[in-house]
Design goal:
The protein has two helices and six strands. The chain is of the alpha+beta class. Pfam families: 4HBT.
């Protein structure tokens, strides 16, 4: 499952399931910042897309309450990134996720996020 924004950025879903998601994307020229490395906003969007898929995988609507992103390594054009989302805590009303952005086995960024979980209105 992808959304229009993910498609625009070239983000592909590799797998998703209850509380987890694995996405990938190749860094293209339009993803670069003024220094010629991957823009932090692209890395954030990749992580956020994995966060959305993992947190909405339980049959209830999940909306972000908070997120945090750490950037560790620069990423260059042509490199393929993978975002791996894992559920760290699932409660009745909130859930927290960890999303690792990797280039091969190297961790280049880390995203954490918490969602509010609400029942889907059936009207």
């Amino acid at each position: 499952m992808t959304d229009p924004f993910m498609a625009l950025l070239g983000i592909e879903v590799r797998s998703s399931g209850r509380g987890q998601a694995r996405l990938s994307a190749r860094v293209s020229p339009q993803h670069l910042n003024i220094h010629g490395s991957c823009h932090g906003g692209f890395l954030y969007s990749l992580a956020d897309a994995a966060f959305a898929l993992a947190s909405n995988s339980h049959g209830v609507a999940a909306v972000a309450l908070s997120t945090h992103m750490e950037y560790f390594k620069p990423v260059r054009e042509g490199e393929v990134l993978e975002a791996l989302a894992t559920e760290e805590n699932l409660g009745r009303r909130t859930a927290t996720y960890r999303i690792e952005i990797r280039r091969d086995t190297e961790l280049v960024a880390l995203f954490t996020g918490t969602v509010f979980r609400k029942e889907v209105d059936s009207r």
